[in-house]
Amino acid sequence: MALEHLFQGSALNAVDGKGRVSIPAFLRGVIERRGDARTIVLAKHEAFPCLSAYDPAYAALKHAKLERLLEKEETSPDAQLEYQQRNLMAFAATEEVPYDSSGRILFPPMMRRKGEIGELALFLGTGETFQIWNPQLLLDDPRIPEDLKDIARFRLEERGVS
Amino acid sequence: MALEHLFQGSALNAVDGKGRVSIPAFLRGVIERRGDARTIVLAKHEAFPCLSAYDPAYAALKHAKLERLLEKEETSPDAQLEYQQRNLMAFAATEEVPYDSSGRILFPPMMRRKGEIGELALFLGTGETFQIWNPQLLLDDPRIPEDLKDIARFRLEERGVS
DNA sequence: CGAATTCCCATGAAAACCCATTGTATCCCG
DNA sequence: CGGGATACAATGGGTTTTCATGGGAATTCG
């Protein structure tokens, strides 16, 4: 799993009244270099109160990895069950949304609720994937390093939000 | 992690009104020999009041190393969390900026603030990476060897700055 | 028909691009 | 060895393009 192009950087974008958000251009660049889709996949993050996002090419890679894992292990009932569970999470519990020519998606209501995203969406590159946060939830989470919170605060200031 | 080409040397360049700075040519040479990107990655230095900078190839290497570490360790909750935190710091808390045909970047405001860079940027090669300093902060730091400060003073004099 | 959704265009700010100038180090040829 | 010509680096300025975002028209669906 050595991906050539990695998601990096941060941005704070507005969610408008219609539920539209611009995917930052630097993230779109990575998506389009990894494959030719203009689409992102959204999922609830396993550990943090935010969303995890990636491109369809990465979803395929993840699936292949799961498959290999299953074939390698002897097919004990436990391994079978775990595979089924993870596969469900990886595919049923995600939503794929295309972005338009101006780089915006229409935020799916279910995901928006799961990520508790309000009028501001904080995008954070994390290498293979990226995350979408309600900035306030990030500031409130004790597990997030202070230096990263500084960045979130800076992005908020930039927009004139206290 | 034995990189063939290393960053070395020093230079003092101006940041203009638009926030542009020339990356010294001798550093660009190393970047382009390591990979074919014309891009640098900026991060806050962990210990000093300056910025740490490197090329995307080095960032990818660092990432691969993290990944391998995770797969080796048993996936205890603690290890998982630390992995998440380090990934966030390595990718969300950094910015990737391309330099143009004349070798200049547009200094991202957030990083400029984090590094407290004013109108002068002091570049210092440090092998695998290089650093960008506000020269005054380097002179004021008691942890910096006097010989290195002499170099900074020389670069300042060269420009006619007291 | 009404509500929501998709499409299309408008705009202001910021970023990328292009061209010009200057200084300095290098080279080459007399 | 000198001196002019050359190449490249750093920097300044103006112009074009892209980005994020808002609003409205057209279209679909119940």
Structure description:
The structure is a homodimer. With about 160 residues, chain A is an alpha+beta fold. Chain A has 6 helices and 8 strands. Chain A has helices at about 25-35, 55-70, 75-90, 110-115, 135-140, 145-160; strands at about 10-15, 20, 40-45, 50-55, 95-100, 105, 120-125, 130-135. In chain A, strands 1-7-8-4-3-5 form a 6-stranded antiparallel beta sheet. In chain A, strands 2-6 form a two-stranded antiparallel sheet. In chain A, helix 2 (about 55-70) runs antiparallel to helix 3. The model of chain A has no long low-confidence stretch (mean pLDDT about 90). The interface between A and B is medium-sized, with 26 and 26 residues. Chain B binds a DNA duplex (30 and 30 nucleotides) through loops.
Keywords:
homodimer; 162 residues; alpha+beta; six-stranded antiparallel β-sheet; two-stranded antiparallel sheet; 8 strands; 41% helix; DNA-binding
For the biggest sheet of chain A, the summary is: 6 strands, antiparallel
Q: How many helical stretches of chain A?
A: 6
Largest interface: A-B, 26 and 26 residues
Name the strands of the widest sheet of chain A in spatial order: 1-7-8-4-3-5
Oligomer: homodimer
The rounded Rg of chain A comes to 17 Å
Helix/strand structural class of chain A: alpha+beta
Total beta strands of chain A: 8
> Which percent bin holds the helix content of chain A?
40-55%
Instruction: Tell me the β content of chain A.
Output: 15-25%
Order of helices and strands of chain A: EEHEEHHEEHEEHH
Mean pLDDT score of chain A: 90
- How many angstroms separate the termini of chain A? 41 Å
Shape of chain A: globular
**Unreliable stretches of chain A:** none
